[in-house]
UniProtKB/TrEMBL annotation:
The keyword Signal does not apply. Coiled coil: none annotated. Keywords: Membrane, Transmembrane, Transmembrane helix. This is Lipid A core-O-antigen ligase-like enyme. It comes from Belliella baltica (strain DSM 15883 / CIP 108006 / LMG 21964 / BA134). The chain crosses the membrane at residues 12-34, 46-66, 78-98, 110-133, 168-186, 191-207, 213-230, 242-260, 330-353, 365-383, 389-408. The lineage of its organism: Bacteria, Pseudomonadati, Bacteroidota, Cytophagia, Cytophagales.
Length: 416
């Protein structure tokens, strides 16, 4: 599961580790008769999701072959074939495998992610404290080729890129950040959770990308909203206590990093949050406004109305042939496939996620919060980059969503 989730690009393997694991899982699944596959595919939400996926994939092929771009790119057709078809199929195969090994409850499935995140966190701390180990990981173990594999840029190498993964800058930190949320919600040992596990997992997220804090903030916002709406004093007290502990832990984390003299990485993390709205950075009197930069340098739209609605097939991220570049996922979608493509992708995922909410029982309140947190997190982080692809955060999301659907389908079938 570790290799599947994080997909490290191991140098001596012919393909990415996640691809190899996916192939082996599917091979085992179909060799055993593909149990529950027909039953799951008959689910109305999954069936409609796959139909929308077929439309999306067909649209990417049309844009690829009939656009005016001189340089033909199959990036989007491959990406969304994997997103709409390979990801769900591998997810179903994984769920059948882990259920076979007794992981048949929400808590047990969630703890798989928590355990994986904890293992990764120890690797992150080890590479953070040992530059020699980190150099071995990047230059001997992984395929680190600047400008090709896009593991991490040379300019960022001194600041971030700790652990063992194939995506240090976006999805991997998001996975760790969301795993920190799962620790708060599902880890039973209270003091050990607050003092050790939560800060460990959160640090592993933040030292790679500050976007990892987004799931934590969204989680607390959702919990606060639910508790204040219900006006249950006991739950509000629990929320305030948890918030207090988290704030104290953040202060301790800062002190921990300072004591270890990890100044470059620490300053980069703190300055990133200061720079969201502008302000003097740590160790410097200079100021920098991330919001202003994002709106000024990355927010623009196609000139023509037709291109704005239906796109032009133009890839504007990590494309050396494009004179227009943007990190914003929404803008990338509009330039490629227009509003039609943007709405199609977002609606497909939201339709599936909202559908699974209908299957969650009232007593499984925590799971409903987790699914809501996933849905809102995806909307927010798409401003930072394209989250709608086959990455570690989406693997987590789909395993949770499909497990909810599979659990409902199985219980409904058994009750007949």
């Amino acid at each position: 599961m570790f290799l599947y989730i994080y997909n490290p690009m191991i140098r001596f393997l012919p393909f990415d580790s996640g691809v190899i694991i996916s192939f082996l899982i599917l091979l085992f699944y179909f060799f055993n008769g593909a149990p529950n596959l027909k039953r799951i595919l008959k689910n109305k939400y999954i069936f409609i999701y796959l139909i929308l996926g077929l439309i999306t994939f067909s649209y990417t092929l049309i844009l690829t072959f009939f656009s005016d771009n001189e340089h033909l790119s199959f990036r989007f057709p491959i990406m969304y074939f994997r997103f709409f078809f390979e990801l769900p199929l591998v997810t179903i195969a994984i769920l059948n495998l882990i259920i076979k090994f007794g992981y048949n409850t929400y808590g047990k499935v969630i703890h798989i992610f928590i355990n994986i995140a904890i293992v990764q966190s120890f690797i992150v701390i080890a590479t953070l404290l040992s530059p020699a180990l980190r150099d071995f990981v990047f230059f001997n173990l992984l395929k680190f080729r600047e400008g090709h594999d896009k593991i991490i840029s040379i300019g960022d190498f001194s600041l971030r890129g700790f652990g063992l993964s194939g995506d240090y800058l976006f999805a991997f930190p998001l996975f760790q950040g969301f795993a920190a949320v799962l620790v708060l919600f599902f880890f039973k040992n209270g003091w050990f959770k607050y003092i050790f596990v939560f800060p460990l997992v959160l640090i592993s997220s933040l030292v790679n990308a500050r976007v990892g804090v987004v799931p934590v903030l969204i989680f607390f916002s959702i919990i606060a909203l639910f508790y204040f709406i219900s006006m249950q004093k006991s739950k509000i007290k629990i929320l305030l206590k948890n918030t207090f502990f988290v704030l104290i832990l953040l202060i301790l984390i800062i002190q921990f990093v300072q004591i270890l003299e990890l100044n470059n990485t620490f300053s980069w993390i703190v300055n990133g949050f200061i720079n969201i709205f502008g302000g003097n950075t740590v160790g410097s009197s200079s100021s920098y406004n991330i919001i202003e930069k994002l709106l000024g340098e990355h927010l623009f739209f196609p000139n023509g109305c037709f291109d704005f609605v239906f796109g032009s097939g133009q890839v504007i991220f990590s494309n050396p042939f494009s004179y227009i570049k943007s990190d914003i996922g929404y803008i990338q979608f509009i330039f490629y496939g227009g509003l039609f493509f943007l709405i199609l992708i977002i609606f497909s995922f939201k339709f599936l996620a909202i559908g699974c909410l209908n299957y969650i029982k009232k007593e499984d309140f925590k799971i409903k919060i987790i699914v809501l947190a996933i849905m809102i997190t995806v909307l927010f982080v798409h401003f930072k980059g394209n989250i709608y692809n086959y990455n570690s955060f989406m693997k987590l999301s789909y395993i949770i969503i499909f497990f909810i659907i599979l659990k409902f389908q199985t219980s409904s079938y058994s009750s007949r």
